[in-house]
Design a protein that fits this description.
The protein has an 8-stranded mixed sheet, with helices on both faces. By secondary structure, the chain is α/β, with parallel strands linked by helices. It has helices at 22-35, 52-56, 64-73, 110-120, 137-145, 158-173, 196-203, 215-224, 236-249, 272-276, and strands at residues 9-14, 40-44, 84-88, 91-96, 126-130, 148-154, 181-186, 209-210.
Length: 279
Amino acid sequence: MAEEKISGVVITFFSTASAVGKTLISINMASELARQGCRVCLVDYDLQFGDVANYLKLPVEHSVYDALAEMKKNPEADIRQQVEQYRYGTICFDVLPAPEFLDQSYNLSTEACTELVEKLRLLYDYVIVDTTSMFSKLNLAMLDISTIVTFLGVVDFIPTIKNMKIGNDTLQNLNYDTHKIRLVLNRSDAKTRISMEAVQKLLGEGFYHVLPNDFRAASESISTGVPLVLSGSDSVLAEEIRRLISRYTNRAYVPGPEQLGSRSEAHHKGGLLGRLFRR
């Protein structure tokens, strides 16, 4: 019997500022959707400096670069042969990491990258796309084809808020469906003299969802390579990420049996730099 064709949901994480938590949140969204039994592929389209594989402590044998090369060689190729698999206990999802070497990212066309995501959405229930913090040609293409765009921001410094305002105005001027863009605030209770209410007034709209600041839990997740939603963490950040996902899927969060299995790959040892720069 021929494999049933699906049209998966594409959720893109976008921001106009760096270090706002796109990668951490996208990883956790992919993990929770996989825990719920969905077929998920997480794509790292920060082509030059993507950190998805680093955050997951995932050895890279294949990347976006390899998938696109295979597509060029054989348009009918099964792209699933070019993905990496993240596994924690019984839960797993596929990952297409950013190119391993900087020079590999230079000649990857927007058209080919878009075609890759369109192919993936026929194979997975959810395609999660992590992006760079700019209105690049590739990012605009991803915004166009996405089912949902998570526009992530933080309230810390005036330049960051200015960029959030410019980004939000630009997204509105692109005339997307009003339900497509989800304005999400991360690290909401970080120490700052700028109130969330003042920022919402500046933006002209409220935040769709608010995620709390939990530096300790986020740091531990990155250092171990285990997403918060899979680690058994009772942090408020993990709880709010689950609530955000429930709003996206219209399904209430249902806790599963605690995952006690170990990672399929041993954790890398050494200091923080050794753990981050494992390649």
